[in-house]
Amino acid sequence: MRLREIYLFLSNFVARIAVFMVYKSFMSNIFVPKNILYILLLLTCGSVSARPIWVSLYNSQQLRQIVVSAYDSPLTVSADDSTEFVIPAGQAVYAALREGKIHISDMRGEVGAFERFAVQGTVIRLVPVSPQAEVRNCEGTVSMSIDINRILMINKVDEEPYIAGVVEAETGQGQTFEFYKAKAVTCRTYLYGNIGKHENEGFHLCDEVHCQAYKGQRPSRNIILPAVEATKDIVINSRKDGKLILAAYHSNCGGETESAQNAWQSHLPYLVPVTDPYCTSLANARWQKIISLDDWINYLVKNGFKLNPNVVTDFSFRQFHRIPNYQVNNFTMPVRQIRNDWQLRSTFFSLSVEDGNVILNGFGYGHGVGLCQEGAMEMGRRGFKYDEIIRFYYRDVNLVPVNTLQIRIPEFN
Question: What pLDDT is stored for residue 27 in this prediction?
Answer without folding.
Answer: 47
